[in-house]
Amino acid sequence: MKQPSIQPNSQPTSALMLRETASQTAGPYVHIGLALAAAGNPVREEEIWNEMAKPNAEGEHIEVVGTVIDGNGDLVRDTFVEAWQADANGHYQADYDLSKPFNSFGRTATTFDHGSEWSLTTIKPGAVEHPSGQLMAPHINLTLFARGVNIHLQTRLYFDDEAEVNAQCPVLSRIESPARRQTLIAKREEADGKVRYRLDIRLQGEGETVFFDF
Predict the structure, then answer these.
(1) How far apart are CA 155 and CA 183, in angstroms?
(2) What's residue 19's pLDDT?
(3) Checking CA distances to 201, which of 16, 74, 135, 188 falls within 20 to 30 Å?
(4) 8 pLDDT above the threshold of 70
(5) How far apart, in Å, are the Cα atoms of 40 and each of 37, 121, 212?
(6) pLDDT confidence of residue 147
(7) What's the confidence (pLDDT) of residue 16?
(8) How far is 34 from 76, CA to CA, in rounded Å?
(9) CB 93 within 8 A of CB 100
(10) Do residues 11 and 89 make contact, with C-beta atoms less than 8 angstroms apart?
């Protein structure tokens, strides 16, 4: 006798759930598709890249730079970094538009040139309200993809000249070790008359950067 077919809605929910696919290393593929200049390919006319703020954007204009260092102390020269931050008033701009003075989202990458630094041209973000009602210190959210990193890493960049609000930040203060907190603090520099903040991200070993499980 032919068995009746089982309708999808007659199966338990657990059997219908799509399972998470396995993560894979970034290899060169992310750069080829999303970081064309870093991969040595011709760039598109419209590209989501590291200029998050144009000259007419409201707020304090800054440059953010850094390197990525592995557990052996060597530079990781093929890291792809995505950035997400609030504007100068502490609001995230969810609608991306290249014609806007400022966008909350940007991308950058380390390369084999120029000391293997990643960089962002942006504005200093304002404080953002935490679900608890407290204000989080100004920060930039960073997501890292790289060869050998099976699951992308998420961290934050805070500013060393915001010591008072850093001390009260409900996220930063959850890191119990003061020394570990320092791995998220970018150091202010002056370069060619411009304000620059530097954060070197260490993937493993001594001085390992704090990463978050969001």
Answers:
(1) 10
(2) 63
(3) 135
(4) no
(5) 5, 21, 32
(6) 81
(7) 59
(8) 18
(9) yes
(10) no
Distance set, CA 25 to CA 145, 147, 150, 162 (Å): 8, 5, 5, 35
Q: What are phi and psi of 74, to 5 degrees?
A: -95, 150
Contact partners, residue 12, CB within 8 Å, separation at least 6? none
Task: Kindly list the distances between the CA atom of residue 202 and the CA atoms of 25, 38, 60, 73, 112, in Å, as whole numbers in the listed order.
Answer: 18, 21, 27, 8, 18
Q: Is the pLDDT assigned to residue 211 strictly greater than 90?
A: yes
Please count the helices (runs of H) and the strands (runs of E) in the chain.
Answer: 4, 12
What global pTM score does this model have? Answer: 0.87
Residue 14 has pLDDT above 70, yes or no: no
Lowest mean pLDDT among 5-9, 13-17, 104-108, 120-124: 5-9
Mean pLDDT, the chain, whole residue set: 89
Report the candidate in 103, 68, 23, 20 with the shortest Cα–Cα distance to residue 211.
Answer: 68
For 183, other C-beta atoms within 10 Å of its C-beta total 18
- What whole-number percentage of the chain has pLDDT above 70? 86
SS3 content of the chain, % helix, strand, coil (to 5): 15, 30, 55
Q: For residues 51 and 62, what is the distance between their CA atoms, to the nearest angstrom?
A: 11
| CA atoms of 19 and 63, how far apart (whole Å) | 40
CA distances in angstroms from 28 to 24, 49, 58, listed in the order given: 12, 17, 36
The tokens describing 21, both together, are 């696919």
Helix (H) or strand (E) holding 172: none
